[in-house]
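Repro:
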Amino acid sequence: MTKQLVARPPDAGHYLRGAVDTVLAELTSPSDVDTMRQLARTLRTGLAWTAATGHTCQIALTAAAVRHAARGLDAGDTEQAIGALLAARDGLRQPDTHGR
């Protein structure tokens, strides 16, 4: 008898959490316009993956904060982006896996 491994699907915030953490790490130093646009694309990619997995409705407020951050990056407003990303990160706390 062979044992099959079944992959557990990612939680609703998995892709956005990765994008938010990546962008926050990059925003610790001053960025040029091209870098900020690339970071906005990183956030939009996280949003796209979240939508593709059907999780956007489960984290709608957090997704809105990420969209707000992406718009801030596109406009060159790092303060707006960082504030929105910190709010998003608070909404994306790692889920409690105890007892599972």
